[in-house]
Amino acid sequence: MREQPDVDGIIYRMSDSSPILDAATLGLIHITIPVGMLHCNCSIIGDPQTREALVLDPGDEVGRILDLLGRHKLTVKVIVSTHAHIDHVGGLSKLHQYTGAPVLMHRDDLPLYQAMDVQAAFLGVAPPELTSIEHLLREGDALRWGSFEAKVIHTPGHTPGSVCLYLPQDGGSIVLPAPQLFAGDTLFAGSIGRTDLWGGSLDAIMSSLRNKLMHLPDETIVHPGHGPATTIGHERQLNPFLAKA
Known about the structure:
Blueprint: E1 11-12, E2 20-21, E3 29-35, E4 40-46, E5 52-56, H1 62-71, E6 75-80, H2 86-89, H3 92-99, E7 103-106, H4 110-114, H5 116-123, E8 135-137, E9 142-145, E10 148-154, E11 163-167, E12 180-184, E13 187-188, E14 191-192, H6 202-211, E15 221-224, E16 230-231, H7 232-238
Parallel strand pairs: 5-6, 6-7, 7-8, 12-15
Antiparallel strand pairs: 1-9, 2-3, 3-4, 4-5, 9-10, 10-11, 11-12, 13-14, 15-16
């Protein structure tokens, strides 16, 4: 296990199963790995200069995630959960054990995370090992690693504690070709997150989408928790749930 990073140095208050390397996003190492039985998109977001990385939603198959981290010579500084559904958190404990990186989650999803046995029974699988949550996220937090700074957006609806990470075009010392939104299961290409599971709310997710995500620039590239990437502008125009947002 590597030495535990200092959380205060990271956080500041204010379908295909193969990994996909987003080589078009210059200055950013972004690897999407669909993992587990529900093909959750685990994202590795790395700085090509410092080789520091943030890992988002390591839902399963931690061996594959570690292999890709090693292949790209990346050091994990922080592990973030967009929400506490079993397909997104199943590998949190193992990745934390191997890397020593702190695990971050929104406070409102702690009860869901602590009820992993209920979720596992729903899917008919064994519950994953749990880990301690080193820091509780909240709206407006800024996560810093390498040359990047991402803003935490609290987007309740799919779950009470769902969050998105927004990386502006100039989010740090590296200027990106376009802003990046890591949306968890709040927004998908052509759809939105389901709200019929534990703590879900259609009113809440629509409020999160209309009052927060639809205020982002049209050119923002959206990386959902499942399925292909899209943009805010595309979803604003064509997503049947958001056409009038």
